[in-house]
From TrEMBL:
<protein>
    <submittedName>
        <fullName>Molybdopterin-dependent oxidoreductase</fullName>
    </submittedName>
</protein>
<comment type="similarity">
    <text>Belongs to the prokaryotic molybdopterin-containing oxidoreductase family. NasA/NapA/NarB subfamily.</text>
</comment>
<dbReference type="Pfam" id="PF04879">
    <property type="entry name" value="Molybdop_Fe4S4"/>
</dbReference>
<feature type="domain" description="4Fe-4S Mo/W bis-MGD-type">
    <location>
        <begin position="6"/>
        <end position="62"/>
    </location>
</feature>
<keyword id="KW-0408">Iron</keyword>
<dbReference type="InterPro" id="IPR041957">
    <property type="entry name" value="CT_Nitrate-R-NapA-like"/>
</dbReference>
<keyword id="KW-0500">Molybdenum</keyword>
<keyword id="KW-0004">4Fe-4S</keyword>
<dbReference type="InterPro" id="IPR006657">
    <property type="entry name" value="MoPterin_dinucl-bd_dom"/>
</dbReference>
<dbReference type="Pfam" id="PF00384">
    <property type="entry name" value="Molybdopterin"/>
</dbReference>
<dbReference type="Pfam" id="PF01568">
    <property type="entry name" value="Molydop_binding"/>
</dbReference>
<keyword id="KW-0534">Nitrate assimilation</keyword>
<dbReference type="InterPro" id="IPR041854">
    <property type="entry name" value="BFD-like_2Fe2S-bd_dom_sf"/>
</dbReference>
<dbReference type="InterPro" id="IPR006655">
    <property type="entry name" value="Mopterin_OxRdtase_prok_CS"/>
</dbReference>
<keyword id="KW-0479">Metal-binding</keyword>
<dbReference type="InterPro" id="IPR009010">
    <property type="entry name" value="Asp_de-COase-like_dom_sf"/>
</dbReference>
<dbReference type="InterPro" id="IPR006963">
    <property type="entry name" value="Mopterin_OxRdtase_4Fe-4S_dom"/>
</dbReference>
Amino acid sequence: MPASPVTETRSTCPYCGVGCGVIIEAQAGQITGVRGDPLHPANFGKLCTKGSTLHLTAAAEVTRQTRLLQPMQRLHRGAAPVPVSWDAALDTASNQLRQILTDHGPNALGFYLSGQLLTEDYYAFNKLVKGLLGSNNLDTNSRLCMSSAVAGYKATLGADAPPACYEDLELAQCVFLVGSNAAWAHPILFRRLEAAKAANPTMKIIVADPRRTDTASLADLYLPVAPGTDVLMFHGMLHIMLWEGWIDTAYIAAHTTGFDAVKALVRTATPERVAQECGIREQDLLQASRWFAQSPATLSLYCQGLNQSSSGTAKNAALIQLHLATGQIGKPGAGPLSLTGQPNAMGGREVGGMANLLSAHRDLANAEHRAEVAALWGVADIPAQPGKTAVEMFEAAADGEIKALWIACTNPAQSMPDQRMVQRALERAELVVVQEAFANTETCAYADILLPATTWGEKIGTVTNSERRISRVRAAVPAPGAARHDWQIAVQLAQRLEPQLRPGLPTLFPYPLQPASAGAQALWEEHRASTAGRDLDITGLSWELLDASGPQQWPMPTGATQGQARLYADGLFPTVDGKARFSATPYQPLAEPVDARYPFSLTTGRLRDQWHGMSRTGTLGRLFGHVAEPRLHMHPQDMERRGFQDGELVQVSSRRGALLVPLQADAQLSPTRLFMAMHWGSEFLSGRAADGQRLLGINALTQPAFCPTSKQPELKHTAVKLQKTQLPWTLLGMAWLPAEEVLSVRRALSALMAHFEFATCVPFSNQVPLSAAEQTRSGVLLRAAASAPPSEEVLQQIQQLLGLQGQQVIRYEDKKLQQSRALYLQYNAQGALRLEGLLLTGDTAAGTWLAELLTQELPPPQPSHLLLTQGAQPPAGAQARSPQVCSCMNVNADSITRTLGECSGSASERLAQLQTRLGCGTQCGSCIPELKRHVQATAGTPATTHA
């Protein structure tokens, strides 16, 4: 039979808010490839490491092992879920929801959604909860990432509408990045900024961040602002602008109100005070203020460093006010542009998918807005009582106030702060429904009912990116198993509830379930109608136009031929008087300051090659090449002062929980500040606390304190302390595995982590270049430590899972010292003997070089008994490989250093030669900042200099 044809489908990447276009290749119902869409205006064909490996996360063996493929139900708490039909699952869910509604009222229901849902999914759920069930308890994980940006825009400009666009990256003369590691979190936009800087060397780039990240490598001026002091820094900049006469008095008078109050407020933000409290130099504050105010066009880019804060709204508003005070808004290259964290956080905000919003940027607190939406939906009213936001919702469930939690496309048992509280909420709720594509997220373990949903490559609808650009999402393959679209699940639930809640009345949900494209389009068109006359009016846009002409920006009202790239060019703002508002909000210190008991400030952030809780990226060993295992980053001076060693296991504790994790020296941090990636949940990093409870990953430490306006929690600062930990018994297990077994083995090993005080379990691969990904080998690593060995049964389970059985396994055991080694040797296809698996217990000092033998597939030392007897010092030929820098082409630091020794010329010429010879930085480009540091280091010049 002839091979099935290869199809190509234009769609959108499901990761960050840049909104990159992708072309999905598929054959015989299976996604086989992905590349950037050269016609998409967000990325013009470029993709980052995460986007360029999307097809690998959708491989058949990954889908079989990770996806939730049919509805499941637990007959009672603690029981394993069993398969049920869709009708049975939805009937049970609707009956229990209705009973809770009858017994306790609508406010006993809580719905928690995701910025990774499509706009149509959001719209259906919003109508279901606020229109049919009569509850405003619908919030999303966008509350954790973008709600402060929303509140900041509304407080100053009058509407949640980013006024700038991506083209402004090329047109700006000064770019101010604050609270954003765009090089890792929004890499395609950062590539564009790099290109703009190269084309216009006079462009000034300022980066303000407590960490000297890869983003700071591009900076002309780096400001190491202390955590939580951003408002004071912005007030200090405005103080200087006023003192020097760098403000635009004509713009302020014509287009704003409230400036006098802010002028009085910033009088005390003197350069001396700001420098002392913010930890930056006075001359640097002056330089930043001068460049910002006097540049012909200044663009600000900001993200979670401003948003995830107990003063998040104040931070956003204070930055936006700098643009208003200097007239840096409404013109090419200028304006405050918030970088959205998730692919459709903007779309969710557009349809009112948060507890305080209604459709088309309407406010729940506004009676006129509620009446408009009620009329649109055909219901008597929209309840006026404010809904519970994310943290409030889970606190209410933990307190027994909310009885039912419906969770869709998100993993709060990993991503929410104060994980013990979240755990209590999920355990206490009478009904927990999880609507999810992936079967093994932490939250799935608490679900009474599991509903399989579609995901990337299968979904149909729209998303909106950070520059207000709406893109189509298209299905390249059919949904696997019994998975259904999220909006279909919401509609089918609603249709079951309507006969009792609205007897005799026409349905509120007339959307056709099949074909799915028709239902998605009908939902979108209802949303479009709701935007008429609003700031995001898209009545001039059609589904057909999106299909024919590609992504479009809003607003695009009736009669417009294209969307509007920039807002407020006419100086008119969507407020009652048409003027923007200055907000005189005073600076507030951190809600949880460091003190003698908790002397360190811990911040969380992203890794370059991982996404959120890693339910998708965590399936690929190659995406662990750049950062292989969890680490707590600490300044070398702090480590030396307290007697800590690099790699040493420490206990980090906050007022809410504790975690054991290895230390890593990191000079990019300032003293007393710590950093740990947000991705490490209990699936990858866990252990057993002294009281026997399982450790819950990084968010066991973070605090639930939130901004009083935006209700966004403080995830960028937690006061913590560190202690040495004495765990003399250690374990290291690694093995190459058949591709179809890797994920199931990792899950089984993860389930055993609670037997140790510390444990981490991650996949790894042989890191071949992405162009040869079909040759990739994959395996699993388990690392653990304990005060005493676990049971022999646990060790036997680990050996069995790693395949360390049979005659090809050589062993050494010392029962008196409680030490052992088991090593699996096998001849490869070329007849060479290689190490395929290992398990070291009791003493893992030799693990470093043995792991290198395995992962680099090097020949074992001779004589072979060295494998069993050699200590920490490696035998000849087993030297450690240097860290990976380029994931796409698998280029490590040693190769880069050797090659640079053969290059000559300027820094840019040497970088170009390096890229030509090794291929690093020529694919996704995410490693370019790190490559530049290597170039500068070999030339003996600092990576970042002050102007």
